[in-house]
Amino acid sequence: MSRGRYVALEGIEGAGKSTIQDHLANALRNDGYEVVTVREPGGTSTGEGIRRLLLDGDDMAPWTEALLFAAQRSQLAVEVIEPALRRGAWVIGDRSVYSSLAYQGGGRGLGIDAVRKVNQAGLGPVWPDMVIVLIIEPEAGLARQEGEDRIGGQGARFQQQVAGFYQDLAGAEPGRVVLVDAGGRLDDVAEQTVALVRNRW
Ligand code: TYD
Which of 111, 133, 156, 175 allows an S-S link to 138, with CB 3.0 to 4.6 Å? Predict the structure, then answer.
């Protein structure tokens, strides 16, 4: 049994990640594969506890935030993602370590390399094989967003900065990080995303 593939959906608030995740998971299931979907922050009992701290809690220092994101991710990798990949399943993530690179490394100014290193320490071999960044105008994304959390409530300027860091990440790792225009109908975006993944492998 060969190792599975790990695909992560990324982007700023309201880009349509969870809708596209559903479409992609269904398409791969129709192809006959086992598909495991995960969301971050969360996805494990420990991780859901950390999610509440991160999203509903008080303001926190930038490194506290970054390390809590890394902590919930390490748990998810050990409990869910690594076992799934070992069984040969596809894992489709709504966000991943690339959110931390863009939001904490870039947006919060901690440095992409520093945030990458602490995450690598907690993830071992679990790293997305393909990262699909859904691109949307911050104003349009914020309008699409249902209910804001502590980080999603930072405003359009912060979203714009994060979007810029996603672009930089795509430039730095063109073989892994792909940008998809998500401004149009979500059905069309979903179709394009499914085609991208099927063509890659
Ligand atoms: P999420 O639940 O995906 O919210 P949304 O559906 O609004 O995109 O993510 C919650 C927030 O956490 C979101 O504002 C992005 C932020 N976030 C980070 O800042 N770093 C991370 O590593 C992750 C996974 C999320």
Answer: 156
